[in-house]
Design a protein that fits this description.
The complex is a heterodimer. By secondary structure, chain A is mainly α. Chain A has 15 helices and no strands. In chain B, the strands form 2 sheets. Chain B has a 6-stranded mixed sheet, sandwiched between helices. In chain B, strands 1, 2, 4, 5 and 6 form a 5-stranded antiparallel sheet that branches. Chain B starts with 16 loop residues before the first strand and ends in a 22-residue tail after the last helix. Classes of the chains: A mainly alpha, B alpha/beta.
Chain lengths: 349, 290
């Protein structure tokens, strides 16, 4: 068999896989759009009333209904909705009277910044803690890590957030308070990515950078702590499973050091399922955690969606839901991709 | 005996391994301890010793105790456990670790589970070598290729880059042997090395193992439940039952074995042309386990 022929086969397989991949994404999106759309139409919230109020005269209601296209048959409404969404048009928010897309562009980076730092903290500390707990199973360290995790699970985040603000902001003054950045800097900054750390660093405004970081670190640590509670728990259980495998005995019989066995052999195998856990935790944080954003006055996606929901602002809710759904789809695909990178058994040669 | 000149000098200690009154016990659920090995004693020179016995007879735990691989909750004691003049019972964990893979190696049962699924075979072989010798990566790689060749793998370059799931059981086990023997140990403990393989492949793997053990003048402890296999492959056989050695016979004189348990095992070996109805069963008299 010539190498050229083999390369062709491989290329064909790769393009096949890619094709299947795209079909899956397409179908998933269609499902997501259908679900969000029909939920938006069947819930007992009248978007017309939300706009004009309940004292508007009959003819105004009828006119607005027509303007919104609500008098058309449902399937036509869905078609219009999908074709608009494909152009990035989620309609206008009733609450902010901005296009929903513009609102999302403003709020999503705030959540992205918070969630990303949160997952870095959560995975960066949670994974080693879980490994440590697994290696010292049943010992004091394991119990302490168990309690740390349990607190993370069970203490309400808004209480912990308030306590953290009282201690680190009000008493000690180590960190910035609520909000993303001090007002002083707020209007001097031209948003490019919307991620304040990136924007300030790009502009070379290191004072503003430090200020943004001091605002970010507390809520991010808090989210990180909650992610850590889950990630360390899962890491521990995956590691216990791996450490009981025969290849660990073989690695010991080879005379490898314990640290090499733990980190290079067992954790390398445990990372395979762990990637999915971390990706889904990250997606959970990106969804926007309303309580944290409320406590820290963080103008993020979670707060935006919740406010919109409470005000029957359906365009904003649907737009936000689609963004959140996209994040889940994207991160799932990413973790599938990493899965094949980490586990040679799932690769097709 | 004279060792091949290209190998590191063999220690003059004879016997190489002395095991006296080895005991291994594990905590039992709900209190008390289960004794897996109860006072096993034997010595081993540069020879092939077979340990046979049924599941739970303590043969594997004996092998693991010699390597220092007893599970952490297990307790090991021995009046004497000497390897090449080193008192294993009083070694530091680090000294024990350096002996493992370097001077004493072990081949496990099933390459499907005993090779790390996410590392290439080559990396796993190189790893053993680099744990015991200071050596550049490229030199270790060359040595690993040679080791693969020494276990009758025809194209080591290809196998080196494969993952364990991409090779057959027989090839996996030969790679395992290469991985365990690359640092030139004096003693190899083979724990059911062929039980997971097809019968036809078993003989190939055994031939590879045999050739290497003889060529390098290693000691071998061959743990198996297969009496027939052990008797053709080893010089001497220990028969274990309920954590104790019930009989020691030289392989050639297996037919003269006296202990009723050994006789019972021998009876269970089917003979061509003989009637197998009813199938022979083993008696297990309680006094054997005393």
């Amino acid at each position: 068999m010539s190498t050229g022929g083999r390369g062709d086969v491989r290329l064909l397989r790769a393009s096949n896989a890619l094709g299947r991949f795209l079909v899956v994404i397409l179908l998933t999106y269609l499902g997501l759009l259908a679900v969000t759309f029909f939920i938006g139409r069947v819930i007992p919230i009248d978007p017309v009333l939300a706009i004009v109020g309940d004292r508007a005269p009959e003819h105004v209601i009828a006119r607005v209904r027509e303007e919104l296209g609500l008098n058309k048959p449902l399937w036509e409404q869905f078609y219009i909705y999908v074709s608009k969404v494909l152009q990035g048009d989620f309609g206008r928010s009733v609450l902010t009277s901005n296009p929903v897309m513009q609102d999302i562009r403003r709020t999503f980076p705030a959540t992205l910044e918070l969630a990303t730092l949160g997952i870095i903290i959560g995975a960066g500390i949670g994974v080693p803690l879980g490994v440590w707990a697994a290696v010292r199973r049943g010992r004091l360290v394991d119990q302490i890590i168990r309690i740390v995790g349990l607190v993370g699970y069970s203490v309400p985040i808004f209480w912990l957030g308030l306590m953290a603000l009282v201690v680190f902001y009000a008493r000690l003054g180590w960190v910035g308070g609520p909000g993303r950045i001090d007002v002083v800097y707020e209007y001097t900054l031209v948003p490019v990515t919307g991620l304040l750390l990136l924007d300030t660093a790009r502009a070379g405004e290191w004072e503003a950078f430090a200020n943004a970081l001091s605002h970010l670190i507390l809520p991010a640590s808090l989210l990180g702590y909650f992610a850590l509670a889950y990630i360390s728990r899962m890491t521990r259980s995956f590691m216990l499973n791996e450490l009981a495998q025969e290849y660990v005995v073989a690695a010991r019989a080879k005379g490898l050091s314990e640290s090499r066995i733990i980190w290079r052999h067992a954790l390398r195998n445990a990372m395979v399922p762990l990637v999915t856990v971390i990706a889904l935790s990250y997606a959970g944080l990106l969804e926007g955690s309303v309580l944290t954003e409320t406590v820290f006055s963080w103008p993020g996606l979670g707060l935006y969606i919740t406010n919109s929901l409470q005000n029957a602002d359906m365009n904003a809710v649907l737009g936000g839901t689609i963004i959140v759904g996209s994040i889940f789809i994207g991160l799932n695909l990413l973790s599938d991709l990493l899965y094949t990178l980490l586990d040679p058994r799932t690769r097709t040669r | 005996m004279n060792a091949p000149p290209h190998l590191p000098s063999r220690s003059p200690y004879d016997p190489m391994l002395v095991v006296e009154d080895l005991r291994v016990s594990f905590p039992r659920r709900g209190g008390g301890r289960t004794e897996a090995v109860r006072g096993v004693s034997f010595t081993l020179g540069r020879e092939r010793l077979g340990i046979v016995g049924e599941s739970g007879s303590g043969k594997s735990q004996t092998g693991r105790a010699i390597l220092g691989l007893t599970a952490p909750e297990g307790r090991v004691s021995a009046r004497r456990l000497m390897f090449n003049g080193v008192d294993l019972m009083h070694c530091t964990p680090r000294e024990r670790r350096l002996l493992r893979g370097g001077r004493i190696a072990m081949v496990l049962q099933d390459p499907k589970y005993s090779l790390n699924p996410v590392m290439t075979i080559g990396d796993q072989i190189v790893e053993t070598l680099r744990a015991h010798t200071r050596m550049s990566f490229s030199e270790a790689r060359t040595r690993a290729m040679a080791a693969l060749e020494s276990v009758q793998i025809d194209d080591p370059k290809r196998v080196y880059t494969l993952y364990p799931h991409e090779v057959s059981g027989g090839m996996g086990q030969r790679a395992m042997i290469a991985m365990m023997l690359i640092a030139n140990p004096d003693l190899l403990i083979a724990d059911e090395p062929t039980s997971a393989l097809d019968v036809t492949v078993q003989l190939q793997v055994l031939a590879v193992l045999d050739a290497l053990v003889v060529e390098r003048g290693m000691g071998l402890i061959f743990i198996s439940h297969d009496l027939r296999l052990v008797s053709t492959f080893c010089d001497r056989i220990l028969v274990m039952y309920a954590g104790q050695v019930v009989e020691e016979v030289s392989a050639g004189r297996l037919a003269d074995a006296k202990h009723p348990y050994t006789r019972g095992l021998l009876n269970c070996v089917p003979k061509l042309g003989a009637s197998v109805h009813p199938l022979p069963t083993l008696d297990r008299l309680p006094e054997w386990a005393l």
